[in-house]
Sequence to fold (841 residues):
Amino acid sequence: MSKLTLSQLEHHLFAAADILRGKMDASEFKEYIFGMLFLKRCSDVFEARRQQIIDENLAKGRTREEAEQRAEKPSRYSDSFYVPPNARWAWIRDELHRDVGEGLNKALGALETENPSLDGVLGHIDFNRRVGQTRLPDKKLRELILHFNQHRLLNEDFEFPDLLGAAYEYLIAEFADSAGKKGGEFYTPRDVVKLMVRLVKPREGKRVYDPCCGSGGMLIQSRHYVEEYGGNPRNLALFGQENAGNVWSICKMNMILHGIPEADIRNEDTLASPQHVEGGELMRFDYVLTNPPFSQNYTREGMAFPERFKYGWCPETGKKADLMFAQHMLAVTRPGGIVATVMPHGVLFRGGAEKEIRKAFIEHDHLEAVIGLPPNLFYGTGIPACILILRHQGAKPAGRRGKVLFINADAEFHAGRAQNYLRPEHIEKIVRSYDDFEEVPGYAAVVDHATLAENDYNLNIRRYADNSPPPEPHDVRAHLVGGVPKQEVADKAELLQAHGLKVARMEPSGIRENLSEVREQSPDYASGSIRATDEPIVAGIFIERDERYYDFAPHLTERAQLKAALEADPGVQAREQALTEAFTAWWQTHEQHLRRLPERRDLMALRAELLQTFETALRPVGLLNRYKVAGVIASWWDDYQYDLRTLAAQGFEGLVEGWVDTILDALNADDKKQAAKLNPLDHKLVQRLLPDYLQELEQTEARKAELEGQLEAAQTKTSDEEDDEESDNEAALTEAEIKALKKQLTASKKQLKQLRNQLGQRLTEAHLALSPQEAEQLVLDIACDDLARQLERYVTAHRQAVVAAVENWWDKYKVTAREIEAERDAAKAKLDGFLKELGYV
Fold:
């Protein structure tokens, strides 16, 4: 039996949402989808366990009636939920046809009543709730029920164990995207969550706490982190609190669907009434991770455990509760623990009570790092935010005491349609900079407490780690009489040299002294192939003018020639070839680790191995810096992670089968919008397995386009000639020729349609013809191709930066002020001549 793939389940859940879309917005119907999914999952797991109990009793010689009676005892379902008869899926599917909303409400209520751990989780979901003047009709709810009936939701049906949890998080993200501003109330983007978890590095045997847990992403990712790094995820205790009841419910269901029913999630206002208490005191935690609501008010009166706020009270109005949350986090952190919290930038520099709290954090050595994030990462707000890393006094590593690390990553992001994203390389750079706790010019700064005191405890990130680009230099002499200043070329030496371009380095009379960073990172320099006395330069681009200036080479007469000249440079080609060879050698050595993944199933050990060896193999080439090299493998891993999970769980043949099922599912999808998300012809498996078919399809499409062009031209010409009786019509097509063209076009369209309809059959036949060894090699080849494309993306970006630098010098200095003046004078003289001829002057 084929396993359900992540793509198929995501499509299934998205299509369920589409059934309700239009009747209400995402913030309203998400609870119905979550409720229906939860009912189906609980019922499927229950039925499987019930059948197991019946079979066990039948094997002991009991009658079916006796076996079924024993299977109805709730005590036998200690490791799952007992589902009462009116909440079982078979009854809902087969018997619930009238008053469907009421029947579903009763099913949820009965499930909650029979399972105390679900108390309050399902009761707020009301399938009879009015939306405007109407409620969902029985027909629509029956459609939803029948839709969810399509798939059984047992772990044994999934291509990897946590597939349901991954799909649920996908659905939460989709709802957050649809809900817009409201989405920020329950969802923190997964790239931010991954970053924060990697900063604190949770370990098994510890407690993780999120005081504003939303849908629970921080807690779940912490568990994944422990599991991925070889720890026992069940030996990590998860605790969370959420103020909004419906969001708390989403979080509880999220935990259960991820197989973490033991997570302790409470529903109450964290500032007013923290719920995690033991022995009359606040419970303490090893890791506190959270994204609290930005800039809200709070009420001091009646607040429990006021001793949490020993450094002061922020104003109750003016939306300044942020540092109250931060103090709560410190108060519930164990000695030796760590806090990572998202905060708005206002907490870094506002005065009054907030300044006093900030000062106390610094004087008591609580603040370890301030990490500036890009703008527009979060749903509901476009303002930039930061992450504060806090520890108890004396808990910092020795080398970090009395200091604060500032990381300015606000320019490191990928711009999306509606919001920005952190790519894996951005996360990698932030985490490594935090781990190293060292200066990185224009990015990270280590600042001692004395300096912070001198700045009146203002923690504005740009004050310490300024990533503003330097002002664009302009050489007046070069603007006037031409030439490219050698000093400006030397300033770009690191960029140019990294891509294999030779740049002369001379004393101040010419180019500045050798750059230490270039000397360290340049293989050519280290090997002695470049010397300070070498003539320039960016070969084929510049020629020597004098000791201070270059000229562009005479054969370069247009700006458009620069790109081709740079790409043809022997140094550039050699450097890129060296990187390709290093990658090929690395893959040949380390693909064995992927081959053994179905046996070892050690995903994060594999990740660590690939990351470390990839960097060791490629960094010496010198083209990409450490963060880019790490970003290549991290980006590939992020894109490939679910395929790797499937590979670990199902093996190579199982992964290929999953790809085939996903493609066939997309081909048969009724929902064109959802089907458009995956073009089967673009799938990596089709590209690899059916190259001849794709070529035939391409040729047929080209023939069709050619015939359409000929026919359109002929018909246009005929129409023009009818308007112009004197036109020469010798070249015009006859009516018979046009008719023949139409016939050929019809045949071409028919052939194209037939070809497209054959994709599923041809793919299935090619799949069935694969041997196990061929399936394994196919997967490895695809993985290699994907990683090579990631590497090429980074190389292309670096090459484009080199081209942009040279084009900038062309734009600034190629045309001199004298030439512009001469053109102006010539134009003026020509105009004066026209005016004189016309008698105006």
Observations:
- Residues 32 and 392 are 43 Å apart (CA to CA).
- The first helix runs from residue 6 to 20.
- The two ends are 93 Å apart (CA to CA).
